[in-house]
Amino acid sequence: MAKIKLTKGELKKQRDALHQYERYLPTLQLKKQQLQLEISRQALLLAEKKNSWSLKIKAAQAWSGLLTDESIDFSAWLAPRSLALGSRNIAGVEFPVFQQLEFPPAEYDLFITPLWVDAAIEALRALLSLEREIATIEKGIEVLRQELRVTTQRVNLFEKVKIPEAQEAIRLIKIYIGDQMANAVGRSKMAKKKIEENEMAGVI
Prior knowledge:
mainly alpha; two-stranded antiparallel ribbon; 2 strands
């Protein structure tokens, strides 16, 4: 703790600081709780999406051998046209939210293209969208965790450093001022007694 002035002015300063810390701390604690809750929600969502991706991959294995047909080029049909992202705000923290991955219409000759191509394009686009959604959720969790680290550091600073320091400073200043007042009263009594003794001596 930095050296403090043992004065009434410093006492007021420390009391004001303590009041500010105690008023701000609950807000930080609430923010910490909200971030922890949202991170848990996003982690569950991420696990759900990864499980869904695994199931889609397993389902695709049944027909994935067809994709080796060199006469069919899927690359043009799987190139996204745009990515739509939204955002959410939790405790003042903005993080990205996946909306959709948009693809242009798949155009091909219906007479010479195998019937399974439609289902394959749809399945592959769904996998790509899911991959992008998973990446977006992971990015959001990263943003939330970073903010949680900062918020936790601030909570610890207030709880373990600032508030105890202010309380200790107030205690020391009050003891010092109390001692000074007691000494002043003692000196006043001694001076009064001395005056009374001098007055008695003068009378005699």
